[in-house]
Amino acid sequence: MIPEKGKVLVDFYADWCGPCKAMNPTLEKFKESSDVSLVKVNVDTESELAKKYGIRGIPCFLLLEDGAVVSKKVGMQSINQLLELVK
Protein backbone atom coordinates (compact mmCIF):
# COMPACT_ATOMS: atom_id res chain seq x y z
CA MET A 1 0.00 0.00 0.00
CA ILE A 2 2.76 2.48 0.93
CA PRO A 3 5.65 2.48 -1.57
CA GLU A 4 9.02 1.44 -0.17
CA LYS A 5 11.06 3.56 -2.61
CA GLY A 6 11.34 7.31 -3.01
CA LYS A 7 9.57 10.12 -1.17
CA VAL A 8 5.95 9.59 -0.15
CA LEU A 9 3.62 11.86 1.82
CA VAL A 10 1.16 9.73 3.78
CA ASP A 11 -2.10 11.31 4.93
CA PHE A 12 -3.69 9.44 7.84
CA TYR A 13 -7.36 10.45 8.01
CA ALA A 14 -10.89 9.25 8.84
CA ASP A 15 -14.14 9.85 6.97
CA TRP A 16 -15.82 11.26 10.11
CA CYS A 17 -13.00 13.77 10.76
CA GLY A 18 -13.98 17.36 9.88
CA PRO A 19 -10.42 18.72 9.68
CA CYS A 20 -9.47 15.72 7.50
CA LYS A 21 -12.27 16.57 5.05
CA ALA A 22 -11.24 20.23 5.10
CA MET A 23 -7.72 19.18 3.97
CA ASN A 24 -8.97 17.67 0.68
CA PRO A 25 -8.70 20.86 -1.45
CA THR A 26 -5.20 21.49 -0.08
CA LEU A 27 -4.19 17.90 -0.84
CA GLU A 28 -5.45 18.32 -4.43
CA LYS A 29 -3.24 21.43 -4.76
CA PHE A 30 -0.35 19.45 -3.28
CA LYS A 31 -0.73 16.72 -5.92
CA GLU A 32 -0.63 19.40 -8.65
CA SER A 33 2.34 21.24 -7.10
CA SER A 34 4.67 18.42 -6.05
CA ASP A 35 6.21 15.35 -7.64
CA VAL A 36 6.11 13.58 -4.24
CA SER A 37 3.55 10.76 -4.17
CA LEU A 38 0.54 11.18 -1.89
CA VAL A 39 -0.99 8.13 -0.20
CA LYS A 40 -4.17 8.43 1.87
CA VAL A 41 -4.66 5.94 4.72
CA ASN A 42 -8.02 5.63 6.48
CA VAL A 43 -7.25 4.95 10.16
CA ASP A 44 -10.60 3.17 10.63
CA THR A 45 -9.96 0.57 7.93
CA GLU A 46 -6.15 0.44 8.33
CA SER A 47 -5.87 0.54 12.13
CA GLU A 48 -2.83 -1.77 12.21
CA LEU A 49 -0.94 0.53 9.83
CA ALA A 50 -1.90 3.55 11.95
CA LYS A 51 -0.70 1.71 15.05
CA LYS A 52 2.57 0.75 13.33
CA TYR A 53 3.34 4.43 12.70
CA GLY A 54 2.11 5.60 16.12
CA ILE A 55 -0.73 7.75 14.80
CA ARG A 56 -2.61 9.29 17.73
CA GLY A 57 -4.17 12.39 16.14
CA ILE A 58 -5.58 13.08 12.69
CA PRO A 59 -5.08 14.44 10.18
CA CYS A 60 -1.49 13.28 10.42
CA PHE A 61 1.08 13.59 7.67
CA LEU A 62 4.20 11.44 7.49
CA LEU A 63 6.99 11.99 5.02
CA LEU A 64 8.65 8.68 4.17
CA GLU A 65 11.89 8.32 2.24
CA ASP A 66 12.59 4.80 1.04
CA GLY A 67 10.17 3.48 3.66
CA ALA A 68 11.64 5.37 6.64
CA VAL A 69 9.79 8.16 8.47
CA VAL A 70 11.75 11.40 8.14
CA SER A 71 9.11 13.91 9.26
CA LYS A 72 5.68 14.05 10.91
CA LYS A 73 3.04 16.79 11.21
CA VAL A 74 -0.29 16.50 13.04
CA GLY A 75 -3.27 18.74 12.33
CA MET A 76 -4.38 20.85 9.42
CA GLN A 77 -1.56 22.10 7.19
CA SER A 78 -1.44 24.78 4.51
CA ILE A 79 -0.19 24.00 1.01
CA ASN A 80 3.04 25.85 1.88
CA GLN A 81 3.51 23.78 5.04
CA LEU A 82 3.05 20.55 3.07
CA LEU A 83 5.46 21.65 0.36
CA GLU A 84 8.02 22.64 3.02
CA LEU A 85 7.56 19.25 4.71
CA VAL A 86 8.53 17.35 1.55
CA LYS A 87 11.57 19.47 0.62
> Strand percentage, roughly?
25-35%
Total number of strands? 4
CATH homologous superfamily name?
Answer: Glutaredoxin
Main β-sheet description = 4 strands, mixed
Q: Helices and strands: which structural class?
A: alpha+beta
CATH topology: Glutaredoxin
Q: What is the mean pLDDT?
A: 95
Number of continuous helical runs: 4
As laid out across the biggest beta sheet, the strand order is 2-1-3-4
Shape: globular
How would you describe this protein?
The chain has 87 residues and is of the alpha+beta class. It has a single domain (7-85), classed as Glutaredoxin (3-Layer(aba) Sandwich). The protein has helices at residues 18-22, 24-33, 47-52, 79-85; strands spanning 7-13, 37-42, 60-65, 68-74. The protein has a 4-stranded mixed sheet. The radius of gyration is 12 Å and the shape is globular. The chain starts with 6 loop residues before the first strand and ends with a helix.
